[in-house]
Specification:
By secondary structure, the protein is mainly beta. It has one domain. The protein contains one helix and seven strands. The strands form two sheets. Strands 1, 2, 3, 4 and 7 form a five-stranded antiparallel β-sheet that branches. It has a two-stranded antiparallel sheet with strand order 5-6. The N and C termini lie far apart (about 25 Å).
Length: about 90
C-alpha cells in the first residue's frame, strides 16, 4: 500500500482522536508514531504532527484496505486503510 503513496503519512499511533464531535464525525489527534512517505518510500519519522478530518467523509474516500489486521488500543482489530483526504498540520 505504501508503494502507491506519492506523498503522505503512515500513522501507527494516534492520541486524542476521540475528542472531537463524535456525533458529527469530526476528529483531530496528535500523531504519536508516524512516518513520512515520499514516492512510495518511507523517508523518516514525523514529530509535532496533528491530523484532523471527518470520519464519515474519510470512510467514503478510502482508496485501499490492507489484508492484515492490527490491534489498536487493546480493543480494536483493524487493517491499515489509505485515506487521501486527511488534513495534516506539522511544524
Amino acid at each position: 500500500m505504501v508503494n502507491d503513496i506519492k506523498e503522505g503519512l503512515v500513522i501507527e499511533q494516534l492520541m486524542g482522536a476521540g475528542q472531537g464531535n463524535i456525533l458529527g464525525g469530526d476528529f483531530s489527534g496528535n500523531v504519536l508514531l508516524g512516518y513520512k512517505v515520499e514516492s512510495g518510500k518511507i523517508v523518516g519519522r514525523v514529530k509535532d504532527t496533528m491530523v484532523s478530518g471527518n470520519i464519515y467523509q474519510i470512510l467514503k474516500q478510502i482508496t485501499a484496505i490492507g489484508s492484515e489486521t492490527k490491534w489498536v488500543g487493546g480493543f480494536l482489530n483493524t487493517p491499515h486503510i489509505c485515506c487521501p483526504e486527511v488534513s495534516v498540520a506539522s511544524k
